[in-house]
Amino acid sequence: MKIRGQHYRTIWPSPDARSIEVIDQMKLPHLFTTSKLSTLDGAADAIHTMLVRGAPLIGATAAYGIALAMREDASDEALDAAYDLLLETRPTAINLKWALDRMRNALRNRPREARSEAAWFEAGKICDEDVETCRKIGEYGLELFREAHARKKTKGPLNILTHCNAGWLACVDWGTALAPIYMAHDAGIPIHVWVDETRPRNQGASLTAFELGSHGVPHAIIADNAGGLFMRQGQVDLCIVGTDRVTANGDVANKIGTYLKALAAKDNNVPFYVALPSSTIDWTLNSGDLIPIEERSSDEVTKMTGRLPDGSVATVEISAPGSPAANPGFDVTPARLVTSFITERGTCPATEAGLRGLFPK
Ligand code: MRU
After folding, report:
1. Does the predicted TM-score (pTM) go above 0.90?
2. What's the DSSP call for residue 206?
3. Whose C-alpha lies nearest to ligand 1, atom 5?
4. What pLDDT does 88 receive?
5. Which residues of 103-120 are buried (b: 16+ CB within 10 A; e: fewer)?
6. How far is the CA of 92 from the centre of ligand 1 (A)?
7. 102 and 187 assigned to the same domain
8. β-strand 330-333 against 6-7: which pairing, if any?
9. Which of 64, 282, 283, 340 has the maximum number of C-beta atoms within 10 A of its C-beta?
10. Residue 232 lies in a domain
């Protein structure tokens, strides 16, 4: 996608092929800057601290993390150690394990001296495939949006609600839930997006709003609790979100707060779509209750970071001193609340049969 007229991916190899560059998502939306990652530890740290985040981008960064490790030591022991270190960085997004498995499988049976180059190549392939996958998700979603706009009885734009950030910043390019929004906007379908701020880290207010604003898509940031009212008032035509893990039966883990939006959508007959690449499906689990939910620092709840009038960025306390806080990073939306999945192979019901129909192997 373009920032100030220049095309960016969220992750790319440096010309010397000894490091990678990423967009620093901890500084957005106040500062657009990139960071260089040159070591395995640097890549692991970038995922852990959320300098990069979003399920597909976590996977892509982990893949390059393996490649950086292979530059230093291409032994089996080093490969396994890098795999283990990276797998520990974030627990909920299954794309991380998917990418690590793919890297290890691609390298394990190669001679050591060939591993470094092969790892670099495979990580690049994962990134290129993610771009293409998201583009296809966008095209299938676009058709749904076109139909929804044609069906709309009242005048005005198609009002879409989204939660967290499932845009190009969460992937390598395009995004999952936001890809159809960009394509619909570019195709001239009038679109307006309600952007859930997505407390506690505010990925909606800071990242999704930054993306949509940069692309010129009309949008408004809303408090997380406003969506229910807007749905009751008929101001939401459809919801679309991304996901960090979908179990074989169709349950969906996504950023905390997604479940409440799905409940409100069901109560108001608002379609609730989940956009996902197949790398987000966890075929080994049959219930969302089995998905590990990341517990994050209580500081994210009790403090907030923002820009002061003098332009500097500061973190301030917002809660009663001494009060403890709980901070689960994700929740699970049961499959029965999902209208359909949008994948790179088309749309399907949120059921095991639906998923297996599109992905038989
Ligand atoms: O904690 P984050 O910011 O990594 O969480 C991201 C999300 O929950 C996204 O909705 C999800 O990864 C889908 S990414 C296309």
Report:
1. yes
2. I
3. 54
4. 98
5. bbebbeeeeeeebbebbb
6. 10
7. no
8. unpaired
9. 64
10. yes
